[in-house]
Amino acid sequence: MSIHFDVLTIFPNSLDKVFEHGVVGRAIEKGLIKLNIWNLRDFSDGAYKKVDDEPFGGGAGMVLKIEPISKAIEKISSENSKEKLWKVLMTPQGRTLDQKIARNLLKKERFLLICGRYEGVDERVREFCVDDEISVGDYVLSGGEIPSMIFIDVLSRLVPGVLSNKNSLKDESFSDGLLDYPHYTRPAEYNGMKVPNVLLSGNHDEIQMWRKNESLKRTRIRRRDLFDENKLSDKDIETK
């Protein structure tokens, strides 16, 4: 299984270096992830390659025009007609990306991530040109480039073979709807701060029980919404 990402942006160089390293970089080298970055200005007419304009009705800021975005979608779609292109607008008005949404999106073969800028994109892009709208949280960023990086990283980790240890994915936060348990490494004691004895015991059953319990406690304290969504109660947490 492999997954293909196309990213449409006015700042293509902002993404290149990020994906040369780490998990996604290695996955690209293995051929598990395909990544193409497109410059929106290449689809604009005129000497100045203008891709934005003032909003009708007045107001602050500039709006990305529909023409270059529409032309880019047409061109990118034709690059590999065998793969269904799922067109995603990265916008704070979209549905918030989480692990469940990421798993469902993984059923798609190829994504086009459209990075907004300025005051956003012409509303007709949202209405007629895209299949989905994704947000990465209830806050506003300068553009869609960072959300696109997050989107690619989140989905890439779910592709079989991308993570060298398949158990890493199983134990991570949100993998089972809960937050991850605490992690410790050497030294066993530092400036009076000690690692829990159970982790040094060598008893794998007790270690697994401790980790599950800590995951439940952490979720209850930090993300009560997830705790309740999983229909859990305080009775599910060991008190000893």
Give structural notes.
The chain has two domains: 3-156, SPOUT methyltransferase, trefoil knot domain (Alpha/beta knot), CATH 3.40.1280; 173-236, tRNA(m1g37)methyltransferase, domain 2 (Trp Operon Repressor, Chain A, Orthogonal Bundle), CATH 1.10.1270. With 240 residues, the protein is of the alpha/beta class. The strands form three sheets. It has a five-stranded parallel beta sheet, with helices on both faces. The radius of gyration is 22 Å and the shape is elongated. 35% of the residues lie in helices and 18% in strands.
Topology (SSEs and partners):
Layout (H helix, E strand, L loop, with lengths): L2 E7 L3 H4 L5 H9 L2 E7 L12 E2 L9 E2 L1 H14 L5 E12 L2 H7 L4 E6 L7 H6 L3 E4 L9 H12 L9 H6 L17 E2 L2 E2 L9 H19 L1 H6 L11
Parallel strand pairs: 1-2, 1-6, 5-6, 5-7
Antiparallel strand pairs: 3-4, 8-9
